[in-house]
Structure to design on (185 residues):
């Protein structure tokens, strides 16, 4: 999450990360986050500064849902996929008939939408309903007890930083190479 305050001074406009300022956020009763006043402690401006916009980064193009909501939906479908993998591995070791039924169903139905997949599995037959109930149970247990949420956050941040660094490095190397060739001519 990137929070930035936009300040306008007489000389220029500056974007400062909130982490560089001592900011206290007050949320009045009945208001939503993003619509509350800020008070600044130990911040002594050297010139006239006005706050023109101070809130969480706006992300357009997601309609009614937030990026976090979209990510949660994708994780929800991923948890269904994980649960199906767990159940198929269990069935393969102790109930080959149920394993074959589930594998045949998987061949005919997409697992991209976890809820749609489970709903179709429940309506296939009574034995398939039992498999669907087991998948729902495993999905819930995995999400609540086994998925490492802190590890997800750390890995996502690490991947973003490493990817950004690699892409910027590759670009600089490419453009530096081109600039050298042009200066040699």
């Amino acid at each position: 999450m990137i929070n930035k305050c936009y300040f306008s001074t007489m000389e220029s406009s500056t974007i400062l990360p909130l982490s560089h300022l001592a900011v206290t956020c007050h949320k009045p009763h009945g208001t939503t986050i993003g619509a509350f006043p800020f008070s600044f402690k130990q911040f002594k401006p050297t010139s006239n500064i006005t706050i023109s916009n101070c809130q969480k980064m706006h992300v357009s193009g997601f309609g009614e849902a937030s990026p976090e909501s979209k990510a949660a939906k994708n994780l929800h479908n991923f948890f269904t996929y994980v649960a199906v993998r767990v159940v198929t591995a269990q069935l393969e070791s102790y109930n080959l008939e149920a394993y074959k039924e589930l594998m045949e169903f998987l061949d005919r139905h997409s697992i991209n939408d976890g809820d749609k997949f489970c709903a179709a599995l429940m309506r296939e037959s009574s034995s398939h309903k039992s498999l669907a109930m087991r998948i729902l149970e495993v999905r819930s247990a995995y999400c609540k007890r086994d998925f490492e949420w802190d590890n997800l956050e750390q890995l996502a941040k690490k991947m973003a930083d490493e990817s950004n660094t690699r892409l910027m490095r590759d670009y600089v190397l490419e453009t530096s190479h081109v600039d050298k060739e042009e200066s040699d001519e």
